[in-house]
Design goal:
The protein is mainly α. The chain is built from 13 helices and no strands.
């Protein structure tokens, strides 16, 4: 696979599955240290394992205000820290969050409409809205993590718009369909593909040795160290509402 494109261009399901199996090791590596980073492992366990169960157990799938506040804490700990977003999210009333998220989940499988509905909440942009949907409907939506988006060359730099999310989800969905065609497990979802891209990008930056054992992947990482990123990659668009 072309080194400049990395994992996304890889068509071998064994490589993807190998990266997926390394996900929690990558989260632990990113969680090492003081401050907010140290909270990541517990928050990620909650987001990936507990929140989906909470949402699906409700008669009408939705998130509560407390869920949304913790989700934002997870998002800001995992990615770029923007404290103002936490304040804005918590300024929404419990009733508004419940009503809006119920409507959003009811709109699925129209992900675009669901994103639009959630984006009416204060502090909620397409990226955060996608995190809500990925938690409750990972078979239809993928979280718009910066690292995952930037793993797709055509989508650099990240733009926190509904249009950019649509392009991203289209790419992720295409890759999901491909993996389910070539992989006998046929258990790939958009959210699972997104997690692999995130793990690949973060491991590549923090500790490439985490991906040892994936020979094709190791070669890609080695080659990428000598590959310059495009200038546009270095200065992503600045947006406040994500």
């Amino acid at each position: 696979m072309p080194a400049v494109e990395g994992l996304f261009s890889c068509s071998d399901p064994a490589v993807w599955r190998g990266v997926y199996e390394k996900y929690w090791a990558v989260v632990e590596a990113k969680s090492t240290g003081k401050g907010k980073a140290g909270k990541l492992l517990a928050l990620d366990k909650w987001y990936q394992e507990e929140l989906p169960k909470l949402i699906s157990a409700r008669s009408e799938p939705h998130v509560t205000r407390d869920d949304l506040s913790k989700l934002m804490e997870w998002k800001l700990t995992r990615g770029k820290f923007r404290p103002r977003l936490q304040q804005l999210i918590e300024s929404n009333s419990a009733e508004t969050v419940m009503s809006c998220s119920k409507k959003a989940f009811a709109l699925l499988p129209n992900v675009e409409a669901a994103i639009t509905e959630l984006s009416t909440l204060k502090g909620m942009g397409p990226a955060t809205a996608s995190a809500v949907l990925a938690a409750g409907a990972g078979d239809e939506a993928a979280f718009m993590a910066d690292e995952s988006v930037e793993s797709i060359p055509e989508l650099r730099p990240v733009q926190y718009t509904a249009k950019h999310y649509r392009l991203y989800l289209d790419k992720i969905t295409q890759k999901t369909k491909h993996l389910n065609t070539v992989d006998s497990g046929k258990d790939w979802t958009p959210h699972k593909v997104e997690l692999c891209l995130w793990a690949w990008a973060v491991a590549n930056k923090l500790q490439p040795s985490l991906l040892s054992g994936l020979s094709e992947f190791e070669e890609t990482l080695t080659n990428q160290k000598a590959t310059k990123r495009p200038a546009s990659y270095e200065k992503p668009a600045k947006r406040q509402k994500t």
